[in-house]
Amino acid sequence: MNSPSRSRQDKHSSGYKKADIVWTVTGLLQDERLGTDNCSLSLCCADGVRTDNDMWKVKPPVVFPMETRYRTILESLVPPDPMAQFHLRRGSPEDEFPDLCRNSTWMGRILTLAMYRRQFHRCTHSGVIFDDVIRPGLEEPGVWSGPVSVGCVAGDAQSYVLFCDFFDRVIEAYHQHKVTSQTPESDFNYDNLKGGDDLDTSYAVHCQASVVRGVEDFCFPTHCSRGERRQLLTLARKALQRLEDEDEDEELPGRLLSLEELDQDQQRDLNLSSPSSSQLRLGVARDWPDARAVWVSKDGGLVVLVNMDDHLRLVATRDDGNIAEVFKRVCINLQKLGAHYGQLKHPFIWKQQLGWVTSSPADVGTGLRVSVHLKLRHLPRHKRLQDVLKRLRLRMDTTESSVLYVVSNAATFGPSEVELTQLVVDGVKLLVAMEKRLEVDGDIDELVPTQK
């Protein structure tokens, strides 16, 4: 046990005196995700010596010491509230809360008055407010019998941070995967894919792999300006030119064409259509077709869409069922493009807890959609089809043909790129096996898988 005299000696030898201690502000950090301010203070000696024990992060007390003296300094360090720049003629959150009684979107099912009240006075640095986020679900409330859409959109990347308690719930509901503090896996090693090049071509007649990406430092299409959109086109032109220059086998040389340069036949061949009424209402198609462009490879198997529904979309297609090949082509060129955008100081947008993020919460995580066109005559009418698709984590969409259906992954968040593609490969094989069984009046109950 230390003696009292020894304690007093240590206290004086340390050089600390009440009169020598001053408070200095070392930083004012704003926790962007939680919306709270923390003040970091350090206790320093008069001679400038500071030890590890001299630093704390504390919440400011109710009555801040020397408040009058340092008030102007602290206020100058606080970032300005974007909402202070707006003078919106709005009522209270209770007055502005939308009617969601007949809204079948995930936004309508999740949003409560308490949640709306928390988001009401928030605004991103580019001016996105919460009413901008939920507008898609209010414009198109959906139907209870059809597929459930997310019913919301992000105006910029900061929206996912500022309105995280809303977006996280929507993402979890849509993708059926929990948002955690762990960083999502990303796997572009196409060699890890098992199969995919052995589908029955009498059933699988077409396949496609599509990846969407957002570009850092730019608002998403619903909120970006004409100048931003034109800058994005300039960036795409530079990145695609570099992609062509490094192609040693000369497989990629193509042309970046604006929509004005494409005639109707060319647009139809590329599956490019005029903006829908929904896109026009939401602002995605503002100033159409200004700064919209498409890049097509020499063989037509790789297409890059610029400023269409998002900043950038890569699409690889084949007129057979070789999923492995389209997935490989997307992986290779996406990584190259990502490197070029990084060299141009505008990398693709990545969030630690969500992965790759774009304007729609339906595409976060990987942004990958792998689809196969299947000829099916019996399975679409089977009573257990929806249960089978849910277990396989797939979705099936109709086409203009009564026997042709598009089968794709239902979610993009959770599994890695390889795992999602593997789900589609295995699922398509099982659906084809079921179709063959039904063609001979067989039973498919024993083929129904367990929940994925």
From TrEMBL:
<feature type="binding site">
    <location>
        <position position="313"/>
    </location>
    <ligand>
        <name>ATP</name>
    </ligand>
</feature>
<feature type="binding site">
    <location>
        <begin position="397"/>
        <end position="402"/>
    </location>
    <ligand>
        <name>ATP</name>
    </ligand>
</feature>
<feature type="domain" description="Phosphagen kinase C-terminal">
    <location>
        <begin position="203"/>
        <end position="438"/>
    </location>
</feature>
<comment type="similarity">
    <text>Belongs to the ATP:guanido phosphotransferase family.</text>
</comment>
<feature type="binding site">
    <location>
        <begin position="369"/>
        <end position="373"/>
    </location>
    <ligand>
        <name>ATP</name>
    </ligand>
</feature>
<dbReference type="InterPro" id="IPR000749">
    <property type="entry name" value="ATP-guanido_PTrfase"/>
</dbReference>
<feature type="domain" description="Phosphagen kinase N-terminal">
    <location>
        <begin position="89"/>
        <end position="176"/>
    </location>
</feature>
<dbReference type="GO" id="GO:0005524">
    <property type="term" value="F:ATP binding"/>
</dbReference>
<dbReference type="GO" id="GO:0005615">
    <property type="term" value="C:extracellular space"/>
</dbReference>
<keyword id="KW-0547">Nucleotide-binding</keyword>
<keyword id="KW-0808">Transferase</keyword>
<dbReference type="Pfam" id="PF02807">
    <property type="entry name" value="ATP-gua_PtransN"/>
</dbReference>
<dbReference type="GO" id="GO:0004111">
    <property type="term" value="F:creatine kinase activity"/>
</dbReference>
<keyword id="KW-0067">ATP-binding</keyword>
<dbReference type="InterPro" id="IPR022414">
    <property type="entry name" value="ATP-guanido_PTrfase_cat"/>
</dbReference>
<keyword id="KW-0418">Kinase</keyword>
<dbReference type="InterPro" id="IPR022413">
    <property type="entry name" value="ATP-guanido_PTrfase_N"/>
</dbReference>
<feature type="binding site">
    <location>
        <begin position="206"/>
        <end position="210"/>
    </location>
    <ligand>
        <name>ATP</name>
    </ligand>
</feature>
<dbReference type="InterPro" id="IPR036802">
    <property type="entry name" value="ATP-guanido_PTrfase_N_sf"/>
</dbReference>
<dbReference type="Pfam" id="PF00217">
    <property type="entry name" value="ATP-gua_Ptrans"/>
</dbReference>
<protein>
    <recommendedName>
        <fullName>creatine kinase</fullName>
        <ecNumber>2.7.3.2</ecNumber>
    </recommendedName>
</protein>
<dbReference type="InterPro" id="IPR014746">
    <property type="entry name" value="Gln_synth/guanido_kin_cat_dom"/>
</dbReference>
<dbReference type="GO" id="GO:0046314">
    <property type="term" value="P:phosphocreatine biosynthetic process"/>
</dbReference>
